[in-house]
User: Which sequence fits this backbone?
């Protein structure tokens, strides 16, 4: 199966937060482009999608491998929104004893725990430790090409 | 009665640092000026141990050992201030950024009950979203709002909020306890002149005859009397004796796109600001450069950048300030926009001679200030003739060596990709 690359638009060059690239309207699955692509209507602003609340969004670097089962690898860029109230099951950044940690917020037998996504690591109980949820990880970004910024 | 709120971030610089390092919570933390020379910000825990403006090398070692001192991280503070103000704008009307950590908010139309709820929502939003704790004081005038904020910050149990009813007896009793210099816009010098005519506290100032105040002092002080009575009549620009910062911001007559024209406007602001600094015998440690498109035309692309930069040293030298402003302008200017306003805020003011100004200025200090002015004038002309840096400000309390020292810098967590926080997975 070969991948056909179809240039579909030019990147706007400006200094603002907006990064608008016309994207193909259907998911490209290494097959045939859809005829519906001829009806693109407006530029898609990726930043507005990924960072809907810039004032409370921060970028954090992930270090380590305890979250690989959910696709977060060492060196990934995390988008963290501090305005979101963390829910159980979400990946969060926690400030634990002065250090930042990324884990899944969960419960074990009713007690809150920080749950890793790698069976080599144990869950950490939250009770009894000086900690608070710093923010919710909304996306993680991993560069696939070693030639691009990451 | 139209309500005005003043929102003030508690211990702003320290709070910014704590937002990214909770190990600093609850500890005595101070932030240092350029060259790590003196304290420009303190956490509550540090306040009983070290004075504001204290020279670092004079702090006794037994105290130095148990406190944390950090170099000023202006890129961080500027960015966090921008975020906090963006949250104000999303949730409030009439936001006026008075300083890097204080903004006036318009609470017109709120009932008393709605007001308290709304303020707590705002505190929650900002506290959770940025980690910065804020206190909000509300009244019907800016001067009273400022008093209210001071109480909101200091009095335990106020939960970060205070409303002052201008007509209430509790307000009367409160004003009786305040010295005139506790009020916005009144310097130590003005306070002693007031004392000379028998006005020794904020209450007696409120009760003074406005016409006589205008006659013996100034129109602005007369308006302050009305503000104390609950009538809002002073704009932020008109406030005299700014101790904390000097903000010069102007809306252009028409929208500008040309960078040279905007740079020229900023240069004029820098000039005016430096002049005010010299007149009040202060030097600034940092400057905030800001631009803005027209918010009232949301259909046009919007862009409101601001950048906080450290000055090479605490200064009122217009050339140093201009150069720094220009540097900041180059970083934030983008040609795709039609700008409506530009501003220069000179902040973290210290006394020109590296000493705290006496609260009660005497005639001697007036003469010293004049001499300082002439000295700066001479310095200016020597530097002009022989090149900038030929003559620099010096003093007994300054450390040897003019290299920029910042031994305790924290990362630029939000403005530099190489320095974003790292979280262990």
Assistant:
């Amino acid at each position: 199966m070969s991948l056909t690359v179809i240039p579909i638009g030019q990147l706007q060059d400006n200094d603002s937060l907006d990064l608008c690239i016309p994207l193909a309207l259907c998911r490209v699955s290494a097959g045939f482009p859809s005829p519906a692509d001829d009806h693109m209507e407006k530029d898609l602003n990726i930043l507005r999608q990924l960072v809907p609340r810039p004032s409370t969004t921060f970028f954090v670097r992930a270090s380590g491998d305890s979250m690989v089962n959910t696709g977060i690898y060492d060196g990934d860029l995390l988008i963290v929104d501090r305005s979101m109230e963390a829910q159980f099951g979400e990946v969060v950044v926690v400030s634990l004893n002065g250090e930042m940690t990324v884990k899944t917020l969960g419960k074990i037998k009713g007690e809150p725990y920080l749950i890793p996504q790698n069976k080599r690591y144990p869950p950490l109980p939250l009770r009894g430790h000086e900690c608070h949820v710093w923010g919710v990880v909304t996306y993680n970004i991993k560069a696939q090409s070693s030639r691009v910024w990451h | 009665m139209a309500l005005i709120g003043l929102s003030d971030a508690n211990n702003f610089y320290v709070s910014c640092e704590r937002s990214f390092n909770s190990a600093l919570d609850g500890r005595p933390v101070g932030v240092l000026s350029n060259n790590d020379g003196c304290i420009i910000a303190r956490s509550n825990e540090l306040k009983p141990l070290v004075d504001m403006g204290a020279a670092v090398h004079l702090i006794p070692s037994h105290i130095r050992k148990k406190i944390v001192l950090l170099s000023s991280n202006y890129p961080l503070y500027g960015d966090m201030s921008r975020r906090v103000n963006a949250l104000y704008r999303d949730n409030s009307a009439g936001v006026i950024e008075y300083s890097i950590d204080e903004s006036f908010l318009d609470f017109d139309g709120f009932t008393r009950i709605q007001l308290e709820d709304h303020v707590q929502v705002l505190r929650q939003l900002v506290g959770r979203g940025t980690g910065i704790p804020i206190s909000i004081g509300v009244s019907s005038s800016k001067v009273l709002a400022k008093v209210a904020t001071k109480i909101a910050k200091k009095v335990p149990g106020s939960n970060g909020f205070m409303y002052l009813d201008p007509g209430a007896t509790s307000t009367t009793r409160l004003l009786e306890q305040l010295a005139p210099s506790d009020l916005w816009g009144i310097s130590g010098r003005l306070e002693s002149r007031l004392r000379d005519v028998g006005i020794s506290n904020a209450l007696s100032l409120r009760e003074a005859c406005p016409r006589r105040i205008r006659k013996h002092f100034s129109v602005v002080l007369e308006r302050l009397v009305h503000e104390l009575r609950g009538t809002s009549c002073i704009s932020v620009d008109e406030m005299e004796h700014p101790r904390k910062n000097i903000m010069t911001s102007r809306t252009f007559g028409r929208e500008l796109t040309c960078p040279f024209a905007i740079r020229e406007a900023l240069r004029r602001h820098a000039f005016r600001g430096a002049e005010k600094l010299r007149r009040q015998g202060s030097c600034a440690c940092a400057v905030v450069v800001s631009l803005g498109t027209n918010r009232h035309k949301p259909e046009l692309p919007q862009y409101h950048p601001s950048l906080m930069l450290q000055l090479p040293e605490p200064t009122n030298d217009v050339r140093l300030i201009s150069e720094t402003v220009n540097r900041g302008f180059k970083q934030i200017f983008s040609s795709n926009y039609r700008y409506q306003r530009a501003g220069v805020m000179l902040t973290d003011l210290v006394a020109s001679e590296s000493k705290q100004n006496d609260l009660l200025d005497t005639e001697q200090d007036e003469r010293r200030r004049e001499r300082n002015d002439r000295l700066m004038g001479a310095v200016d002309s020597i530097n002009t003739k022989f090149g900038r840096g030929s003559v620099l400000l010096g003093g007994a309390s300054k450390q040897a060596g003019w290299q920029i020292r910042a031994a305790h810098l924290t990362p630029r967590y939000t403005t530099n990709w190489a320095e974003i926080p790292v979280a262990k997975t």
Observations:
- The CA atoms of residues 96 and 131 of chain A lie 4 Å apart.
